[in-house]
Each structure stands twice: as structure tokens, then as C-alpha cells.
Amino acid sequence: MEMRYNNEVSIPVGEIRLKGILSIPEDCLGIVVFSHGSGSSRLSKRNQYVAEMLQKKGFGTLLFDLLTPEEDLYYLNRFEIEMLHERLIAATKWLQKHPSARDLGIAYFGASTGAASALMAAAKLPEVFAVVSRGGRPDLAIDVMPDIKVACLFIVGSLDTEVLSLNQKAFEKLNGEKHLEVVQGASHLFEEEGKLQQVAELASSWFKSHLPVLTV
Fold it and tell me: Measured between alpha carbons, how far is 140 from 181 in angstroms, rounded to an integer?
């Protein structure tokens, strides 16, 4: 896939700057912003793998750190969903103004606790066209579930029983278009052979089927 933009970026959020990697292929369908889970970053091998798969399918991706290295030293910051989702919103608004990303629809891919941040941000940003949660913790955003209007796909491994139960409870609160996909034989991190590829294919299909209709 030929890339028209593929660079490290620095995203201003208040008085700090967050490091990221923005990749936009030619004939880009839309951009997927990744919201990482606890202890993860733009360098997450799992999310980089999914991002590369999405790029091959024609999607741009933005992987960025929700915390600075100094902030990440304080463990509880990883669970400050209120702060993290506000940073995700700030990064989304920055992306909307980026010369290479203008006029492209934006979706979210959230993993683990990052899924809660993605869902909370989506509840406030109606222009986000879809959310995919991988092994997510939507229960941490349970109060905003009824406010979410975008199409949501929850992907959970069948072996991840506790998280599956939490997803089922949050799923019931969603009022918009939704689907819960249970990947058989997969654990929380989808480390089993072929399971992460399955996640990437499910996400790509969900994003493609919910692309915003362009008006001339």
C-alpha cells in the first residue's frame, strides 16, 4: 500500500505534547485512531499489527501515547478514563485539522482500558463513525453507554471470561447499532495463532461497512 503520509507527529494537548505515528495511504477510506490500554503506547506490537492490517485495507491510522513518559510512571494515571478520553478528543480535533487528514472520516479502535476512553469520546463526538473494542473494558464507561450513537463492535476472546461478562453487561446498555463478537479460543491479549489477525479482519469489515456517505 502506497502511503501519502507516514510520519511521527507531536500532538499538542494543553501544555503537553503527545508522541504519535500518523500513517495515511493513498486513496484513504478514513482514519482509525487507536486508544491504547493500560501500560501500552504507540509502540504496542499488537496495535501496530492491527494498524498495518488496516492500512493494507485502505485505512489511515493514528497511534499515539495517551500519557507522557513521566505521567505513565504513576500507575493510577492509566485508569484516569476522564482525563484519557479528553486527550483522545483533543487528538481527534488536532487530526481533523491536519492537512493530510482533512475531509476524512474518523473511527476509534480501543484496547483494554483504552476502549472505555474511546467510548466516552465517541459519546461526545457524533462525527466519529464507528468504534471497535478489542478485549475492552466498556464497563469503565458504563454511564455513557446510552448516549453513544455510533456503531460499536465489541470483540472479546471466549477464554477471557471475566472481561466477556463485563462486555455483555455494557453491551446491553447501548442503544445504537452494535455487535458483540466472541472469538473462540482467544484469551485477553489474542496471543493465540491467527486470533489477532481475526480481530484485524473483523475491525476492518466493521469500519468499511460504516464509512460515512460522502455528499457532493
Answer: 19
